[in-house]
Structure formats: C-alpha cells, structure tokens
Amino acid sequence: ISDQKPLGCWSVKHGQILTCPVVCNFETHEYIAVHDNKVLRIWKNEDINLDKAFKATLSADVYRIHSLPDGGPVVLFRGGGVRTLDVLLEAPQQEIENVISDEVIRWSGAFMEGQQLILIFTTEKDGDFFVYVQKPKLSSLHKYKLEQQESSKPLCFTAHVTNQTVTLLCLYSNDSVYQVLIPLQQDTEEEEEEEEILSKSLLLNFSVPGTVLKGTSLVVLDKDHVAVLGSLAVPGKEPRECLSVWNTKFQTLQTSKELPLGTSGQLWCYEEKFFLIHGKVLTVIMYKCETSSLAAAVGKLKDSQNPDVSSFVNWNTLEDEELVVSFQSQESVALKAESRMNLRSRRSTVAKVQPETLSVGQLLLNLKDASTYVLETELRQLMSKAPTPDLQATIGCVVTALTDRCKRNPKYYPQNFLLEIVETRDLSYSLCPDLMAVALEKKDMHLLQICLERFPDIPEEITYACLKTFLSISEAHLQNIDVNLDSVICYVDVEFDNKEVKTEIVENGFGAEMDQDMCDTKIPKETQSRSDGESCPVGLQKAALLNAVLHSAYTETFLLPHLKNLPAQQAILFLRYLYYLYVKCSEKVNTALPGIRSPTINQIMDWMCLLLDAHFTVMVMLPEAKELLSNLHKFVRAQVRFYSQLNKIEGSLRELQRLNHLRESQTYSIEVLEII
C-alpha cells in the first residue's frame, strides 16, 4: 500500500466467476478463493497460473470464507452449514447439512473469543431477520430472531465479541444504529426447540442539524466509536457521499469528510486504517481512536462545521497536495490528490493537519508566478527546515511545484535542482508522479537513471517508457550526456579483444568443446569463432541506463503487455545485451558482476524470460535473431549439462567437505579421494 505497487494478479478462465471474496490463510500463507459457487482454489504468492492451482469441487454452494490469524479458515455455505478448511479438504464431496430453510444469508462475521472461533451470520425470510451464532469446532449452533422494527429494516450489520457477549450492531433504514446483545451460551446436549427473540436498543441516531445521513456501510472502531460510509442529504441539494466517525457513548459526530468522486458503498477497517474505493482508486486513510470523554466529544461537536480540523482521522491522504495541484484545472484536483497517496511518510504517527501543512500549500501558490531565482531560493529554504513527520510529503510538493512550472514553461527545466533533490531525499514515484514524465519529455537520461534506481514504486508503464527511450537514443548522443557508469565500468568491454575472450569461461560449463551437437542450427563459420556474448552490443552510457531498468521493481503481469509493444529491433538489441550480461555472470563461480548497482543473475534471467515471452514468435521469424537465439540456446544447455554433472558428484563433494572439518590443522598428509 505504501508503495502503490501491484504485487500479484490472478485470473480465472473466461466464463468462470469469483463468487466470494478471496482470503489469506495466515497459517500457510496461501490464498483461498471460490469460483462458480462450488470450486475451491488454493495457491501461493509465487504461483502464476490460477488454473494450475489446487482445485477441489465441493458438494454445496459457498457463501463466504472467513480467515483469522489464530483461528484458521472456516467456510460458511449458503445453506448455513459450516466447516473448517482442514475438515473440508479431507473429503471435499462430504455432504453439507442445510441449517436454514428458505432463508437468505445477509451478513456473516468470524471472531475469536479466547481460543474459541465464533461464527455469526444473519439471514432474512419474508421480512423477518434471524441471527445464528455458531462454534464450528464444537458443532454448537444457536438461532435467534431479531425483534422487528416498524417501517424500517436492517441495511447492514457488524459485530464484535467481548467478555463472552456478542454485540451486534444493525444499521437500519431509519438512519439509526441499534445494538443487540447476545450472551454466548454454554453448550448443552438439549436443543432448544423455540428460537429466542432478541430485543434491541437504540445506540445512535445520525441527526446533524439540517442534514440527513443515509448510511450504506458500518464498521466498529472500538467500544465507543463507529465509522459510517453513506450519503449526506441537505435540503435543496444533491446528496453527497461522505465518511464519518461517531462517538456512540455521547451520541456525537466525531469527524467527517466528503468524498466527491463517489464510492462503491463499501468500507473496510484494518489495523487503524480505513479502506474504501474513492472514484477509481483504493484510498487508505489512517485513524487513531482517542479516549472517549465528554469534553472531547463536545469539542468535536463544536468543530463539526469544520471537520477538517481533526486529530482523530488523518485526512492528509485526500488533501495533502490539493493546494499544489490547484495550479492545474480544478477538475483534476481530487484525482491528483488521490494519485499522490503515500503512507511511507506517515507510518510513525498519525499526523495532525498542522498549520505548517497549510502554509506549505499557500507558499507554493504564492510562488506560482515568482521568478525562477525566487522560486528555487524559497523551495531550498522550505526543504532545509528541521525534519517533521510530513517533511517527505512537503518535498514531494516541492518537486510537484517545479514540474508544474516545467509544463507551463517549456524553456524552464531545473535539472541540477531536481537531481539534487532525488539524490539526497528519500522520495518515491507516488510523491511526485509527474517528475519522470517531465524527465522523459526533456530526455534527461541521468535523472531517469537515478529515479529508476531509487524509486520503489514506479508503474510498469513508466518503466517501459524509459526502456524504449534508452534503446532508441543514439550512442553518439549519449556520448555528450552525463550518466553514472558505476554499474558498468568494471566489466563492459566496449573494444573487442580476441585475447581477452579466451578467459576460462569453462568454470561455469561453457566451452567450445562442450557445445558440439548441442543444437542443430547451422551457424556461419565466421561467427563460430566468437559468441554474441563476448563483446558488449551497446556503449557504456547505454549499458548503464539499461542496468537501471533491470534494477527497477516490477510485476510481470503488468509489465508484459507493455513489453509486447517494444519494436522488434530494440527487443533484439536488449536481448543481446542481456545475453552479454548472462555470459559475463557465468565467467565467475559466484555469478556476480563487479561494480556498484550491477545487475544480479536473477534480474538478468527474469528480464530475458520476460522479453522472450513477449517477443518469441517475432524473434523466431526474424533472420537477424536466429544466431542470437541459437547461441543463447547452446549456452543454456551447456550450463544445464554442467550443473547436471555437478549434481552427480554432490555426494563426494560433501564427503570431502566433511573430511576437511575432521582433519587436524597441525598435521601434514596426502589423501586420495576416489570419485565414483
């Protein structure tokens, strides 16, 4: 979340539908999903193809899977039957009892009470609502009927369990929250024939003078606070969606915030963070529950007309850059503010909206039309202030102000200032998303190189744009550009030297005598004397830039579609360079390239596989790629053969290592070890 990087993506086949939310098994670190109601899928993070993941077809439709860190996954079926995942996997086709008759499950939740897992779900039938409390491991089930409410019905539920009591909160259509207390009964052998009717009490009424709050989602924050996502209706105006926090002890509004881009109506809460869909973006808002007191509650009520002034919720996620972005069109303000969401600068504390934050935005607005000298001087002073929790976000605003001026004035580009900021500050792409776009437009190769090496959250689209730019730019143009060569200066051989390539590459299994009859492809005689991997196909500057791309973090699923758009000639050039690095790594036993920030063997192999996946069909058809693919094929097969031979003598090598430990260091001896 802090880096805004997608880490994985899995898809079901065309025609299949995921029918309940995917959960994580905290014990095995696996994902659990159900598609088409009955098909269970279980896979790990490193699995790529969901179709090849573990599959089990169940005998009944699944409503929801719940997973708790200490309780293990539990499966709730649409008929009300419950099974722990372990029991279910022992016999996937086992018969599942139908607990509810003609009832429809409306909500379910899982909780831990001591060491006992408690599953609660509510159902509806003909306007009546029922509550089921189940202890799956004890096969205990209790059914209750919810007291009816005239002219209103429940919209959503949430619950928590404390001191052997279930507290069920129900959000009703009359804009009120009711509380139902259900004691956890001791299990007896006798089944109760008549269901008990649960009475409810009014907990909270969403009454703010002049407005009506229509809630759609409700979550419990602690024993005295709840959060409600819904729409705020003001007479004579269109309803506006908002997120609000309420104090249930004193019946007061704690804080609220309008969400102008709209939501999905769903709200999640986890580890003092709200999760909600705002527009097209997943927004994460940090909060911290304060000790509930009358003074605090009344104070918040007084500030309800100005809900931005709140230490309860950190609205900075939505507001940090709104003042800066107002340089641009007003229509993009909220979206830009969302795109800059970054929690890394706020991990240590839930920062209050300090006066300094407002002064930063106001200062940048005032500097909008200032001269270049005044602008850069003021920005340097702003960054030189003592460190604060929001300093990182402030520096992101500074970079945004500079890039905004670059876009308004094409002749303005403070290259040295931007380089200084990126090299000396712990920035990320999400704090200044326009920086790399401006650098690409200005063909600033050095700045792009530094960003690729330092930013942990660069989108795959931008990584691809950098790669394409680096491959397309001419070597002659790069000669006049200042680029950091630390990653290439120690191993790239620009000038081909016949003597140098005769080093003992055989160390890792590649030699001329080993690759005979490794491949049937005919290679011209003039090319058999040397391999494409023996001399670098690009210059020092371009090699250094390409190394920066290899260091950039990516997700294969999201990068591959962009790589397929890379022109064929550029793809071949990049593959030749990767093959050159691959051979260089294999010259040494430790498979590590010398230098600072040099690519690792894993990075090289991953990018080679990516590139071949994206362009294999094209490369097979191109005559100029035939020799390269043939050499790559021979080299890989030679290494596979070499490591296969090493595996055969692994036992003998282990024995030799054991004897070395047993030998006394003071004595001299000659030993003969026979390898069979």
TrEMBL record:
UniProt entry keywords in alphabetical sequence: Activator, Nucleus, rRNA processing, Transcription, Transcription regulation
InterPro entries: NOL11, Nol11_C, NOL11_N
Location of this chain's protein in the cell: Nucleus, Nucleolus
Residue span, Nucleolar protein 11 C-terminal domain: 362-674
Gene Ontology biological-process entries: maturation of SSU-rRNA
Domain of life per record: Eukaryota
GO molecular function terms attached to this record: RNA binding
Nucleolar protein 11 N-terminal domain span: 1-288
Keyword Nucleus: yes
Primary location group: nucleus
Protein name per its UniProtKB record: NOL11 protein
Organism: Eulacestoma nigropectus (wattled ploughbill)
